[in-house]
Amino acid sequence: MIKFLRNTLILCVIVLIVLAVWLKIGIRADHLHIGPYKLSGLYIKLDKKLTLNAHHIVIPKSKSNPSFSSIDETFDRIKGMLQVFEYVALHDIIYENNRIDLVYADHILHINTKDYVIAGKIERIEKRFEAEVPLFYLKEKKISLSGNLTYSHYENRLHVWGRYDMYGIEGSFTASKVKNRISFDIQSDTFNDLKPLMEILPLSDTLKHWSAERIQAERYTLKSLKGSGRITGRNFKLDSDTLTGLAELENAMIDFKDGVEPVSTPKIVMEYKKGGLYFDLDKPVYQNRALDGSKVSILYLTGGKPTKLKLDLQVQSPFDEAIQKILKAYHLQIPVLQKSGRAKASVALDVVFKTGETTAVIDLNLEDARLQLYKLDLGIKSGHVHYEEGTVSFDDVHLKEKIYSGIAEGRVELRKKKAEIVADLDYLHSGEETDKKAFEIRDRNLTITMDYRKGIVIHIPELKLSISEEENTVQFTLEDLSLIKPFIRDKEFIQEGGKLDIVTDDFKTFTFNGLLYRSTCFFYEGDDVCHTRVPCTGKITPQGIDFYAFDQRLYFNEARSRVTLDRLHIDLKRFIEYLKTREEGTIIREKAESLVILGKESNLRYDNYTLVTDSYDVEVKPNGDIKAIGSSDGDIVKFEKQGEHFTLNALRIKDKVLHPLIDFNGLQKGRYSLKQSGALDKVMKGRIIIEGGVMRDFKAYNNTIALINTLPALAMLQDPGFSKEGFKIEKGVAEYQLIKGEKIIFDSIYIKGKSSTVVGKGLIDLKKNRIDIQLAIKTAKTLGNVVGNIPLLGYILLGEDKSMTIGLTIQGTLDKPKVETSAAKEILTLPLELIKRTIESPQQMIRETRRTEEANPKEETVEPTQYDDEVSSSAKEELELF
Hints:
The protein is an alpha+beta fold. Helices cover 16% and strands 53% of the residues. The chain has 13 helices and 57 strands. A hairpin with a 3-residue loop joins strand 56 and strand 57. Helix 12 (831-855) runs antiparallel to helix 13 (864-881). The model is unreliable at 583-591, 781-795, 831-846 and 857-882 (pLDDT under 50).
């Protein structure tokens, strides 16, 4: 510019010298050539001061570079020359491929080039120049400047200050140049659009993108933009380390990530320093959640390190789906979700812009919260959760819920998709009322491991319990039920342990299968083969339990309170005792009145009584009372239990049904009617009516046969039926008492055969394994004729009708009973106690049988009239015996 002014002024001097004579009258020249200078449209006039106009001036390029060594002298000469002009207007000056308009008026110089417009005046004060520039306009950038400057060419120091107007932004600036170093400071008034300014500033694309697009505000104010650099040749190089900036944004929105709702804030203080852009947010809000204290920064905008975004979010709200959405946007899958309660979270994210690589540090303080760890739902009184480097850790977490309480700590390794939690439990229970809790654990440490690589698998090693979920199917695996036995209410259900798998798709219907180990045996088969290993399957629904065991030969339906047995035997007494050992006292549902047990091809045992049946129907009332009826090949057996009183009735049953009922198989082939009643643990009274059949194959009988074979006088008894093939019975009756299940007292025995009749009494002590029976055997009259001439022996008593009566005693152990003849006088002690019973007892039993027939007319019964007559006749024969 100084070079241009010098050449222009030289031209003016030449013109003044040549044309001074004509100045007064005014001189016009259409074309003028003076050496290398060319002028067109020249007009000069002198009126106190000179007025100069020219159009299209061509100034040649100087061959020498301008020198600033004598700039002050040059400036003085130019200033002196301008003082003689009142007005100068030079248009279309051609200089170095540039067209320039120059106007000097009112001591202000106006210069208009293709690049800029400048207007101002300059003064020299001692060794410095001071200028006032009301206008400096850069045409291409559309930037307007105004201000002042001072310049000392001796010190090579320049200082400028003023105001600017560019891209809709107005503000002030200062700048200084000392030798080849320049420093600047820019401020702005409040403006509305930052984007145009960011486009022209020498900043990184990341900084521009974030400052102008990711952050939107209603108003912007640049408080300061400072920096310095160095002039190298004709270029200015900014020293990025010196660049600092401070701006305020009002009513701003920060769009951190695509797909995530922006954060709103009434004010952002944005600061740039040391290659980083820092955002201080005032009362920020994200989806109606306060983020007070949150900060955002962009680091390493300069230098060799990758530029990264650093978010420091302080969340005063639950760590819920809204916060998780931020993490997921940065590809962070953290399986921690807060469903309710209070929380304070600190979320620190470092995001590398180029690669998207994200690291996070999260601290979460919970209070009265419900937290979901993957799919494990936890109620938390208070606690701290920390996430860093792919690991979620729990510290001093106080668990508190209706069903559990304690302190937990642990860690989740996200890369391995595994977790381990150690819980010091105060309690863990099923949630019912105190006396109805299905299980309860107190003051126990448990370790919970979780693997969610495929589905989810939870394992509690102390209990050998596993819970797995895959494709919405949940399976509970209990490898050793004995480990959970101490903590459940119904301990008898498990007894010795076992294993169980439970599966559900909706937590409404559960299917299970497993193997239960039991010490109490009430299911058996075959020859008393007891099942203490119970393979089972079943289903649990809101309506109740369907339980199957032993290849579905056992089925329990809780809704109907029904047990069905098929080819599987049951000990009913033990089963009921098992039910009573449970705290509830019964497995019967509250709305049911009774438990029904149905059997098919199944034996029913109660204490020492076994009922062999084709089918049976048992009703067990909640108080333990029993009503049962069984059938075997048409034979009917009934028994009832009310309180401690037990009643058994069997009408004309076959021997295969009788034998297990009385635990005696010496009576065979006939038909038998049995009635027994009383208290099992005290006294039971019973009667057996015998119709036909054979008595054989028991040791007392076999020893009696052996005795008969050794005594010649008794040899004739082999004909009346006492033989190895057995004693053939026409009819009989026995009355007895069972004392506490240990001792059987036979009050009377009456058995009539074809040629002999047996009567007797005695006892069997089962506990001591002893027997003491007294019998009298009366032969037929025809046999008496045979032995009528035999001398009277001590153990034979002859009747007047030539009949013979023999007395026998059976004593000793049940394994080796000893049979001996008894003295005739001892036989005479029988009638007073025996004869009356042998007469009355059958009649009384028949009367009760008749009442049973009337109550059950369709059941097969003994013909009462005929049998009554037969017994009465037998009783008369006994009277004749004595």
